[in-house]
Amino acid sequence: MNRLFLPILLVPGLLSLAPAVELKSPDGHLVATIETDSAQDLVYTISRDGKVLLAPSRIGVTIEGVDLGKDATLGQEKRASIDDQYPVFGPKSIARNRANTLALSIRHDASGQSCTLEARAFDDGFAWRIISPGSGSRTVLGEASSWVLPEKSIIWFGERNSPWKLRTYAGEFVSAPLSKLPTVSSQGPVQCPPLLAELPDGLGYILVTEAALENYSGLRLRAIGESTLQADLADGLKGFPITGDLVTPWRVTILARDLDGLVNTDIISALNPPPDARLFRDLSYIKPGRSVWRWWSKGTGSPDEERAMIDDAAALGFEYSLVDDGWAKWPDAWKRIRELATHGSSRKVGLLIWKDSNEISNPAGDYAAMRSFLDSAKSAGVAGVKVDFFNSESQASIAFQRRLLVLAAERKLLVILHGIQKPTGESRTFPNEITREGVRGLELNHMTEGMIPASHNAALPFIRYVVGPGDYTPLGYSTPGDTTWAHQLTTVITTGSPLMVIAENPAMLLRDPAVRPALDVLKAIPTTWDETRVLPQSRIGELAILARRKGSDWFLAILAGDRPASLANLDLSFLGHSSYQAVMITSPSQKALERKEWQTGADTSPLPAQLASNDGLVIWFRKL
């Protein structure tokens, strides 16, 4: 597939000395300064309103033993601006790509090699990448790229006491002082992006990650002390080969004044190319929605049991039913899948099927095994595939993932990626990637590592979901850990995923009297939103308050962490002057749901003054 964003390669002969280059955001508040330091290393600094928020940090990639960010001389500049909009599935329906851009020629003096530094300054962040022209095969051995954060920052990162931490991105979000980050983890100083820094003195937040990962090795972040995070590539010291031009992924620094700005950033998707018009000429098959899923509650069933799941999906008004690991062992498995897909079609429920990535990862014959599987899936009439156990973000794994998305799109199949790294904006270029894991989700409640704490759920909207969809698979009434049922229901709203796979068995949702008070609310919760507002009382890991709008309806979701939280002076101004019929779901005890209804402007609001630890609350406002 042709790249739709073409790198700008500057002519080496036009180099000239420049002591420093500034790139300002469109609103003028943010300034990125690119220069060489006293050692002639290429560095960048980010300030906002005259205050330095990111101290001089390295830019550099090492190719065939040459660090292109050392012995550097700045040269010719080319500047432009971008301002466009595009549709997205996420916390809002329309994203804006508004930035000032720079292409700066860099010469490595010792070798005479030249490259181009591309940079973009947004109102809420800064990103850069390196383009190195070349021919034949070269080896990328690593990066010197770094982020030097404010000294007293608090860092939020995904922790897991397991070697799987860096393979599946399924860590629990916890925090530590920046100074402790090199030693705080049992698994060492390397962390999975995104990393979020709470800045001192009320200066807001910095989120560090990457965007547009293609033909490259995935970025992790190594805490090396002195307030510094350094790029650590998944392929390690052996490096990885590049044929022809090298284009690194974007190195991204999001700077948000508050949590509302953080949740509503568009930077990650904006740094990715739009969909290929030929590959995605028809988008009608790409439909967000909810899915039932038997695996979490009872394991994958027989064909008859999975047929019953489809019927329950239809009763719930859900759009999909997911058949997970185990279906391939059925006698005449593809025939049974075809029968289920046909039955689902008659009930307006799309069928999704699971596949182990290791069975289709061989690139021989342009992934002949993958093609065969996808052809069979398409022939059987399924809507999409869930491909699992990637467990790597090596260059080879990234190539496999992107080829899967292309081949699935050619067959008009949705793709769910599991056992995988963080998103870097792939769903803009490949909208058939309807969701991906790369998050510590509810399936952990059925594993030996223990239950997911409420604090993790109250952190996710401000860290993991900022960079893209996360297949958390919410709602586990039957195994809630220490959280309440209302907390579990609330996670259906706070989870960011265009395809929402609901963990709880639909039989309980439909037929258990104890959860019936919330059934109509659950049925009404959408998976994509027109608008999201984060209320100012929100605190990462302690209290998440999100107001989300779909059409004229609002959903207010409140999640408490592991301590009680005050709801006094809650600002409901997002409702404006309109009148709404309100339905509130709370938990009077851990495994119970209570329903209250009233009309705004006419009745007294029953909103509680405080939310208990591990609790949650949902209000559905229907416009009158």
Automatic annotation (TrEMBL):
Task: Name the residues that span the membrane.
Answer: none
This protein's UniProt keywords: Glycosidase, Hydrolase
GO MF annotations, alphabetized: carbohydrate binding; hydrolase activity, acting on glycosyl bonds
Q: Which residues form the Glycosyl-hydrolase 97 C-terminal oligomerisation domain?
A: 528-621
Asked whether the keyword rRNA processing is assigned, the reply is no
Q: Which residues form the Glycosyl-hydrolase 97 N-terminal domain?
A: 23-274
Entry-linked InterPro entries: Aldolase_TIM, GH, GH-type_carb-bd, GH97_C, GH97_catalytic, GH97_N, Glyco_hydro_b, Glycosyl_hydrolase_97
What's the name of the protein?
Answer: Alpha-glucosidase
